[in-house]
Design a protein that fits this description.
heterodimer, A: 299 residues, alpha/beta, Spore Coat Polysaccharide Biosynthesis Protein SpsA, Chain A, ten-stranded mixed beta sheet, 41% helix, globular, B: 539 residues, Rossmann fold, 3 domains, six-stranded parallel beta sheet
Chain lengths: 299, 539
């Protein structure tokens, strides 16, 4: 609960200017508009720079941060949150360049954070929206993870379940959490950076799932992350995911947790009939994750 | 309707909290600087306890750091005239504590770095090493520290001293606490607040240590009781200046110190500028490392009017170490005389086949919970040998919670020993107990010993502090951990085997309590002073 409400939206983008413009339209239509919309451009090669800067001429809340190279979603969120922190953000609204918030999505997140603390004294480490796919169903890849006592404060009129892991698709983080726990790990490059970060800040207190805040995630299909679906085209992402989660599990829970994870990955790949050549690359990423120990940068 | 996030109105509860805190801080500084041109630079703090105050006297030009991301605003209280000096106060308004912080939580105890292996191999050896280090520290401290009273020059009647101004305001007393948290000194502090109120004084309470002040809610809900949050908003070096203003404004006739360090530091100012204010000081335990508050009280004894102590040991300490006059040091026991006069029979019988042992105390090192577990283990071995069914209860919370539970598992005592929280009904427990163990590292005069005897339970304690005043030799054991464990078993065994020894211990114990009951209680020695202050009499 703070009397200061300065909010910065951090949107990381890469070569998706069309979708990004839709996101900016949605932000302009918010009932509670972010004071600053920070577009972090991972060195896009399309017309992102021109379009964003043209918009910024008309809308003084838009800021454009172009990174010299593509540092992945993780590097983009790391740089964006760091810059927003310096700008004085009390709340960080974090999202992808293909997620369109409904007009009251940001206000609902902020209201929920404030009311939850007023009602229960505990201060949630983040608030995350209900993420829907384009057809209105739940977006499979953005379902937050509940804690064991998720229903502790769920009541009519305040249906906020406690969660400890969420994706960087419409998640609002208060400044104290960043001050206390630092920034997302840029070295992850892509995948699991959001899960690692929300789990890290949830050590202070879990976050809350706010179903009245809704965003639409405009992904090509509505499928969750499953190693059964590895193919030549998406292998590179799964390798990052395997390495990053292994590294996280080793840090937080030790080798037994890594072994359990590796066993689960193996089972999924077997069930999906992933070719042995691709499987070997995933096993290589798992082994790489054992020695991968990126540092956590503090603000 | 659309608006920017930073323009969103603050919700009423948050606004009320912040405005209330700002008001508390303003009240303090506006009294301290009544005529100056006063400017507050306010930030939102992340600390639930401390406002990190900074006071700048003289012209001050704001810096970028004053307008950081947590900047809340600036308030100006103009001076009496444009020529008045400027004072700038920078404050971070503490946030509200969360439920975890509101609980009495302590970081779980861990053995000293590098000695974990020793503790795992032998908790008794670890305890003995710690005891040895403490004894060495005590010996060194005794050689190093000042144990003489600071001399106080009273001046001459050639120069007239200040006199108490006339006022229509009802007399008040300032009661300075260490903090408003659990503790023996705090219990007496709360009692004195109640007694002062009953005597007809207005009561102003301050605390030295910035904490959550969890017991603030237990202050009497009375218009004559005010808790001023100096602990949160005023740096200690500024207390004397503030007190001078407060004493004049509130007609404070006396200050009662309960382990409140900044009040000791205010004594020179009080003696020079406000000599009519009576200073009462209460102390409890002589601590090993530095003597604790009794030594502080002794060092300042020339500046004090009344030194209230709770044991004969402290009377001797003040008299013999600091040459304090017998009139100044007053003994007032924290004991209810009615309890001592109506003592029930003590429950333990020689040769009984069921024995219940209890421990009551915060699970901090001072109470040596590890030694308690080791003593219970030794008692269990003794009980098996003598065909006695032993059960035990340990009541208390603190950093040793986990360690005690782990040791009980390790020594297979889980079925015999019940762990209960500090909120347990102690009298009900003592009504069912035969023996109370108190192998503390340090005690003043443990109140729980009175309670135990008043409920038919025999206490066995280490020979520390003033415990010799309440317990006979048969119930006192040495302080060294191994000797304490052996002494406890030997004391129980002697009483259990020999009915004559048990009867002797019971007689001596009850006699000691009856003897103590002839001493005045704290209420009896303090109330006359409070009443005379309430009538406006000058000390």
């Amino acid at each position: 609960m703070s009397v200061l409400t300065m909010t910065v939206a951090v949107i990381v983008t890469f070569n998706r200017s069309g979708k990004l413009m839709t996101v900016l339209d949605a932000l302009a239509a918010q009932t509670m508009r972010p004071d600053i919309v920070l577009v972090v451009d991972n060195a896009s090669t399309d017309d992102t720079a021109e379009l964003v800067q043209a918009r910024a001429q008309a809308d003084p809340t838009i800021r454009y941060l172009r990174l010299p190279t593509n540092v992945g979603g993780a590097g983009g969120f790391h740089a964006g949150i760091k810059a927003a922190y310096q700008m004085g953000a009390q709340y960080f609204w974090i999202s992808d360049d293909d997620a369109y918030p409904q007009p009251d999505a940001i206000a609902a997140l902020h209201d929920a954070l404030t009311r939850f603390q007023a009602q229960n004294v505990w201060r949630p480490s983040f608030a995350t929206s209900r993420v829907e796919w384009t057809d209105g169903t739940l977006c499979e890849m953005n379902c937050p993870r509940t804690v064991w006592d998720w229903a502790r404060f769920v009541r009519p009129g305040s249906p906020w379940a406690l969660v400890d892991s969420a994706s960087f698709v419409s998640v609002m983080i208060p400044r104290w959490a960043v001050t206390e726990h630092g920034l997302p790990i840029a070295d992850y490059f892509i995948w699991f950076d959001d899960a690692e970060y929300t789990r890290r800040i949830a050590r202070s207190y879990p976050g809350i799932f706010v179903p009245e805040s809704v965003v639409t995630h405009d992904t090509p299909d509505n499928r969750g992350v499953n190693f059964a679906r590895i193919d030549e085209k998406n292998l590179w992402k799964f390798k990052y995911g395997a390495r990053n989660e292994t590294s996280f599990r080793r840090r937080e829970a030790g080798l037994v947790s890594v072994l359990a994870y590796a066993y689960g990955v193996r089972q999924q790949m077997r069930e999906g009939g992933v070719p042995p050549r691709l499987r070997r690359q995933i096993y290589g990423a798992l082994i790489k994750g054992l020695g991968f120990r990126p540092s956590i940068e503090r603000v | 309707m659309s608006f920017l996030a930073s323009t969103k109105p603050v919700d009423p509860a948050t606004a009320a909290y912040f405005l209330g805190q700002i008001d508390q801080a303003r009240t303090i500084y506006e009294m301290l600087f009544p005529t100056q041109h006063l400017r507050f630079i306010l930030n939102v703090g992340e600390d639930p306890v401390w406002s990190n105050p900074e006071v700048i006297e003289g012209t001050y030009v704001p810096r970028p750091t004053d307008l950081g991301t947590d900047y809340l605003g600036s308030i100006v209280r103009p001076g009496n005239s444009s020529a008045d000096p400027e004072v700038t106060v920078r404050l971070s308004i503490p946030r509200q504590p969360n439920p975890r912080e509101m609980q009495q939580t302590d970081t779980p105890w861990r053995p000293t770095r590098g000695l974990g292996l020793l503790f795992r191999a032998s908790p008794l050896a670890y305890e003995h090493l710690r005891y040895s280090v403490e004894m060495l520290r005590k010996w060194r401290a005794a050689r190093r520290q000042t144990n003489t009273a600071i001399p106080l020059g009273r001046g001459t009647n050639l120069i007239a001293g200040p006199v108490s101004p006339r006022t229509d305001k009802r007399p008040a007393i300032l009661i300075g606490m260490h903090w408003l948290e659990m503790g023996g000194a705090e219990k007496l502090g709360f009692d004195t607040i109640r007694w002062a109120l009953e005597a007809g004084l207005r009561v102003i309470v301050v605390a030295a240590i910035p904490t959550i002040q969890r017991l603030a809610g237990r202050l009497p809900d009375h218009p004559d009781v005010t808790f001023i949050r100096l602990d949160r908003y005023l740096p200690h070096p500024m207390w004397p200046r503030y007190l001078e203003k407060l004493i004049h404004a509130e007609n404070i006739r006396a200050i009662h110190i309960h382990h409140c360090t900044p009040l000791y530091e205010s004594l020179p100012m009080l003696r020079v500028q406000l000599p009519w204010v009576q200073i009462i000081d209460s102390t409890h335990i002589i601590e090993y490392d530095g003597g604790g508050y009794p030594r502080v009280s002794g060092v300042w004894s020339s500046y004090l009017d009344v030194q209230h102590v709770i044991s004969g040991e402290l009377v001797s300490y003040m008299r013999d170490t600091f040459n304090v006059s017998a009139r100044q040091v007053v003994l007032g026991r924290m004991l209810d005389q009615d309890d001592a006069l109506a003592l029930p029979p003590l429950r333990l019988q020689a040769g009984q086949k069921m024995l219940h042992v209890s421990f009551v105390g915060r699970l901090f090192y001072q109470k040596r919970p590890v030694v308690v577990v080791l003593a219970l283990r030794a008692l269990q071995a003794w009980a098996q040998k003598n065909d006695v069914t032993l059960t035990a209860t340990m009541v208390g919370d603190g950093p040793y919670n986990e360690t005690v539970a782990e040791l009980l598992r390790r020594y297979d005592l889980v079925s015999q020993v019940t762990l209960l929280p500090g909120s347990t009904d102690i009298t009900a427990l003592l009504d069912q107990s035969d023996i109370l163990l108190l192998p503390s590292n340090n005690e003043g005069l443990a109140l729980v010993c009175y309670e135990a005897v008043a409920h038919g339970c025999i206490p066995i304690s280490t020979r520390v502090g003033s415990q010799t005043e309440v317990l006979p030799d048969a119930l006192l054991v040495p302080l060294a951990p191994r000797a304490a464990v052996q002494g406890i078993v030997a004391a129980v065994d002697a009483m259990w085997q020999d009915a004559a020894k048990l009867a002797g211990a019971k007689t001596d114990l009850q006699a000691a309590l009856r003897r103590m009951s002839t001493d005045p209680t704290a209420e009896e020695v303090l109330m006359p002073t409070y009443r005379s202050l309430a009538k406006g009499k000058v000390a």
